[in-house]
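Q: Could you fold this chain for me?
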Amino acid sequence: MALFVAVIVLRPLGDYLSFVVSMALLCGWAPQRPLAWMREHAHDMAGAVTLVAFVYGFVHPVLGVQMMASSTMYGNVKNYGGYGNHLIVPTGLLQHALAPPAEGAPPPAAHAYVPSWLHSDFGGGLVRVEETTSVVLRQLAVKGAEMTDKLPRRSIELLTAINASGRYFEFYAARNYFDRAYDHDKTALHALSKSRMTGTADEKYVVPAYELRRALNLARTTNGGDGEAFKIVYTPLPSTLTTPTQWKAYVGTRVVLSEEGHGAAATCYLEEPGMLSLLTRKACDPSEIGLQPPPSRMMRKLLHPYPTPLLEGAGDGQHCTT
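A: Sure. Below is the predicted structure, expressed as structure tokens.
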């Protein structure tokens, strides 16, 4: 136990080293020697089930290929943007390793050996969505998934007493049941009603580039495949920023993307901050995140990252979500 406490003190946030250490501690404290157990059950059902459960519950969230796995459920774990907020185990290692380099810095040499499909799904870094008129994107984001009114009054009081936002979101329902209303009706979840989105602008939030592309694909294929007409403004974030406070304060080049639906070509331009933004506009590069095709079909079945709302007075804590 003393060693366990020492690891937490010395490694306050999870990273590669602390993950290796935690796995070594797990093996050392196991009631049965892991290698002996593995040899005993290498070819039976118990071994196969244990392996699948371990990969699903622990390896997937660490790698970042799944962000709603069993070991993170209800834990308010920060899944991307640095190494996360878990005391020992990191999260989103693929997103972290494949994030774009700092401005002016050359890409890491290891990126040259990464398969293009892996870089496509997990690269791109983070984006801050400033505003959008898309019904689909708003349904998936802050107010579309908010269920604060479902919390008991005492729960809200306890949350606000510790300087939490006191707001509750069902991002799980908004994403996993987005096109499965029949299945959603059988659950105790609520976040699929468009009526919950007020007429006022939605609050800013941060998502990985992957999730922006996934959500844009939903907007472009809704209405029987015709898509919807919408506008979205977002800001790519430097990989050096790792906390919600930093994400919120950052001022950088904004991307303005407009679509008319029905397969029409998108209009996209870059806008520099400041009073002269109208004079500094320039067309987007074809490699711009919002102009890219959707992520791979397999990953769209597995990976539905939560957004991180940038709420007033919320600090760097993760919001209560289901």
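A (continued): The CA atoms of residues 100 and 106 lie 9 Å apart.
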